[in-house]
Request: fold
Amino acid sequence: MIRLENKLKLYGFNNLTKTLSFNIYDVCYAKSEREQRDYISYINEQYNSERLTKILCDVTEMIGAHILNISKQDYEPQGASVNVLVTERALPAQLIDESCNANELDYLQGGNFVSAHLDKSHLTVHTYPEYHPDNAIATFRVDIDVSTCGKISPLNTLDYLIGSFDSDIITMDYRVRGFTRDLDGKKLFIDHDITSIQDYIDDMTLKKYDAIDVNVYQSNIFHTKMLIKEIDLQNYLFNMDVYEIKPKTRLEIEDNLRREMIEIFSGVNIY
Reply:
């Protein structure tokens, strides 16, 4: 858990903005065009806007924030988005803009985009399932942004977010922007200790991945990339049993899956 360094005593409001951005990729082997379409349909059903809303609401609760507004959308033919506006402290009902749904979630019907507003903060998630007809590999990407202002921080939600999706490749960016002041007027450009995003990920989770950091400490910018270590082929086959496939073909599929993962992890067309 993040704790403010030495319980800082500040002058006025904590104006620091802490932003955590995720890209999570799931890779799947879907050989035929029919299987690829079915995979997209499966992803759209599993990660529709209703479920994404639940995930963002859980994150909001975990960071100790309060929801002001939620918007969401399911797209055709694929994908979803959610946006949530949140606040660090609960606001009296009379101060909440009447156009906001203000924590009233029952109205949510379908949709693949969810956004929620925090007081001066927000959470967003977007999904991008895709495949190419000449390639038997289908991918599913989730973009998540958690931006908070004040004492609350999104880093404590890392394990929950990673566990909420099938995560083969993960890229994460964390940045602290702006400054706040202590009682003597001294500017504070960060209010907690951090050397790596990995410090806030459970050790059992980290054991499953190869991870590298690219950090710019003087600018309070932290970047981590993670790649799954082991491939259990059955987990990557869509509507297919591994024992239906010849051993040589299994090796070819595993090789293609690993190549796809390495290119996504590297951000470069290698093969």
The longest strand covers residues 17-29.
